[in-house]
Specification:
Number of strands: 12
Helix content: 40-55%
CATH class: Alpha Beta
Low-confidence stretches: none
Mean pLDDT: 97
Strand content: 15-25%
Distance between the termini: 35 Å
Largest sheet: 6 strands, parallel
Number of helices: 10
Structural class: alpha/beta
Bound molecules: NADP nicotinamide-adenine-dinucleotide phosphate
CATH topology: Rossmann fold
């Protein structure tokens, strides 16, 4: 299959690129210097030259704090960009995989979210991503929205700069006398490599609609840090930070656990327990 990866040098895009290549797909890497998903004419030109069977869109405007200030840019990147690709999916006949996020939910459910739970974002980023999902689902006949959450990969997120959570904990654990992490926010930490493998697995099916693709089972950020320290053999004291201890500018969901319900129903779920993914990731890093 000819697969165009938009955001191929990003955290998730780089692992998608390597896994799809490994599985003998022809991968066309489309980075921001050759395509801007906000520009419909440019997308039309680039994608008509490439003629992909499948486009995987990982591009997003997703610095959550900046989205609150640069709301137009956020809407352009996350909503109108998705709409452009959805329009071209119909016009040019490619399948569209569009990456979305747990931030479309408020987090108040306090039980794993299913794909058809009502979205209720608590910030601008979540609103723009929810809008992008609606555009894709209402326009592109052959599309799949894939929600991911708490992701980490060997090439850290470009939009956020610097470290992912795992590498940050390794750094702090080696440099600080004490590390403090919150225990009241829950996630399913997911390596981008696992998402890439899951997408390649889905690509052999005709799955459309909206699916969740996150690691199995959940933990608090504190428990995640504990496991990182345990595997890495870090002995620095790790303590629970109180709610409100770290200044947060933008509201975020406190509960971000997603159930891979659609994948399971279709016999396609290959996501593993978050601890196994972490062990593999750290075996490459340490
Ligand atoms: N990171 C997280 O914690 C997280 C959590 C849940 C969901 N997600 C979702 O996962 C996806 C991938 O995230 P990631 O961590 O891999 O992000 P990333 O490392 O920042 O990669 C995003 C890629 O998209 C490119 N891009 C940004 N805007 C673009 C545009 N308008 N047109 C074309 N390319 C553009 C970026 O290029 P430049 O850097 O050169 O601009 C970069 O290559 C996003 O859809 C995000 O919403 C992320």
């Amino acid at each position: 299959m000819k697969v165009a990866v938009i955001g191929a040098n990003g955290q998730l895009g780089s692992d998608i690129t390597s896994i799809f290549k490994e599985q003998n797909h022809q991968v066309i890497e489309l980075n921001h210097d050759v395509i801007n998903i906000v520009d419909l004419d440019l997308c039309k030109k680039v994608l008509s030259e490439v003629q992909p069977d499948l486009v995987i869109n990982t591009a997003a405007y997703h610095n959550v704090d900046k989205c609150e200030i640069e709301t137009v840019k956020a809407f352009e990147g996350n909503a109108l960009g998705a709409r452009n690709l959805a329009i071209l999916s119909n016009e040019q006949g490619f399948k569209l995989y569009h990456i979305s996020t747990d931030y479309v939910f408020s987090g108040s459910k306090q039980a794993p979210y299913l794909e058809d739970d009502a979205v209720c974002p608590v910030n601008v980023y979540g609103n723009t991503k929810a809008s992008g999902e609606f555009f894709v689902r209402s326009i592109a006949a052959n599309s799949l929205v894939i929600r991911v959450s708490a992701i980490y990969g060997k090439n850290p997120c470009r939009a956020k700069g610097g470290n992912n959570f795992v590498n940050l904990m390794l750094k702090l654990g080696n440099e600080k006398p004490e590390v403090r992490v919150v225990a009241h926010e829950f996630v399913s930490p997911t390596p981008t490599m696992d998402i890439a493998r899951q997408l390649a697995h889905i690509a052999s099916s005709n799955l459309t609609g909206i699916c969740h693709a996150t690691s199995e089972s959940q933990c608090s950020w504190y428990e995640f840090a504990q496991e990182i320290f345990r595997i890495a053999g870090i002995k620095t004291p790790l303590n629970i930070a109180q709610p409100g201890e770290f200044a947060v500018n933008t509201p975020r969901p406190f509960y971000s656990v997603l159930e891979n319900n659609l994948l399971k129903k279709n016999g396609l779920n290959i996501m593993r327990d978050w601890r196994e993914g972490l062990k593999d990731y750290l075996s490459q890093q340490l």
